Amino acid sequence: MFKTTTIVFLFLMAHTTVLSQQIYKRTLKLMGSRFDITVVAKHKTEADRYIDKGIKEIERIEKLISSWDKNSQTSNINNNAGIQPVKVDKELFNLIQRAIRISELTDGAFDISYASMDRIWKFDGSMQEMPSKDKIKISVQKVGYQNILLDKDNSTVFLTKKGMKIGFGAIGKGYAADKAKELLITDGVEAGIINASGDMNTWGKQPDHTDWKVAITNPLNKDNAFALLPVVNSAVVTSGNYEKYVILNGKRYSHIIDPRTGYPSEGIVSVTVFALKAELADALATSIFVMGIDIGLDRINQLTGVESIIIDDKGDVHTSNNIKIDNN
Predict the structure, then answer these.
(1) CA-CA distance, 32 to 48, in Å (whole number)?
(2) Which among 73, 62, 63, 9 has a CA at the least distance from the CA of 36?
(3) What is the pTM of this model?
(4) Residue 311's closest CA among 234, 238, 236?
(5) How far apart are CA 145 and CA 96, in angstroms?
(6) Which of 179, 184, 145, 156 is nearest to 282 (CA)?
(7) Mean of the pLDDT values across residues 111-129?
(8) What percent of the chain has pLDDT above 70?
(9) Rounded to the nearest 5 degrees, what angle is found at the Cα of 290, between the Cα atoms of 284 and 296?
(10) Which H or E run includes 291?
(11) How far is the C-alpha of 271 from the C-alpha of 218, rounded, in Å?
(12) How far is 145 from 213, CA to CA, in rounded Å?
């Protein structure tokens, strides 16, 4: 369920030296990943103040959702699996509730209880043979969003199976990007981008009044971008599996695992999703790998304001109904 390697590259087009506002960008490591925070501001001092606020917000989100921090609310939920419900902040409760709704939408292709999965697949070069069918079946026995019980009145979360866990690796960075954007808009930042390792959320326009744009490249032919698309007050997330895989018996297995079966996804090397929120785009990008091209696009086409570009393992491009490719 983890997402790695972005193939979306941001093009900052404005001639900032002749405009009253300029583009300022800072790159740093947050939530274990690369974050690029870009703001449009009048001068560097103002930009630094804005970016510092964005960083603090992302760090706050990390403390809330981290399963590595033993003192986090998420760790407390996991530690009490099969024992008792855990009272959590409304923010975390609502995030888990939305995650369950996405699980329902994707028939379980997205599932934050994937963290319960036994790590039987290795993608570090050490794996030499297929796991047995029985081992694969056992690996997902504790996975299942249906076993996450929410009590809205008391704001509690209960994992019904002992040893069950939740994790936000496939949604957390998108959510952090959304929250940082929301905070900076409230603080008066007219335009900018939060790019969380490919989970990108934009607002406003560049100093020359043009839209922010992203170039989409084919990971099987990285030399040329095949599409340059505007991202207007919305998010775009690209998920790729072309750098993290294992070949067994001549067959390529992706690191993105179907949480329902325990088997790796097949047939897709890259998914890009456009949506109003990076949180949703993040979750759907991972889900499409598991659902496959036909079902994935069918679900996307039923959602208002959501579009997708899929590249299969032959290099062919598949798009949702309303994507308009501009090759110029």
Answers:
(1) 22
(2) 9
(3) 0.90
(4) 238
(5) 10
(6) 179
(7) 91
(8) 92
(9) 55
(10) helix 278-291
(11) 10
(12) 36
Position 315: which residue type? G
Average pLDDT over residues 112-134: 91
Least confidently predicted of 27-31, 197-201, 286-290, 308-312? 197-201
Contact 37, 49 (CB under 8 A): no
Q: Read off the tokens for 16.
A: 């900032």
Q: Which two tokens stand for residue 73?
A: 């609310």
Residue (of 291, 93, 282, 109) closest to 199 by Cα position: 282
Type of residue found at 121:
W
Q: Which two tokens stand for residue 146?
A: 């249906």
Q: How many CB atoms lie within 10 A of CB 134?
A: 8
DSSP state of 260: T
Question: How many other β-carbons are positioned within 10 Å of the β-carbon of residue 73?
Answer: 20
CA distances from 40 to 12, 65, 201, 203, 289 (A): 11, 29, 14, 10, 35
**C-beta neighbour count of 95 within 10 angstroms:** 22
Question: Which amino acid is it at 209?
Answer: H
* Dist CA 257 CA 114 (whole Å): 9
- In angstroms, the CA 172 to CA 58 distance is 10
Q: Which residues contact 294 (CB under 8 A, 6 or more apart)?
A: none
d(CA 8, CA 225): 9
Q: How far apart are CA 134 and CA 132, in angstroms?
A: 5
Looking at residue 199, what DSSP letter applies?
E
Residue 134 is inside which H or E element, if any?
A: helix 133-139
Closest CA to 168 of 91, 256, 67, 258: 67
The tokens describing 226, both together, are 């095949």
Most confident of 5-19, 78-92, 230-244, 253-267: 78-92
Tokens linked to 292: 């496959």
Question: 197, 271, 287: which is closest to 239 by C-alpha?
Answer: 271
- β-strands 307-312, 245-248 pairing: unpaired
What is the predicted pLDDT for the residue at 5?
A: 39
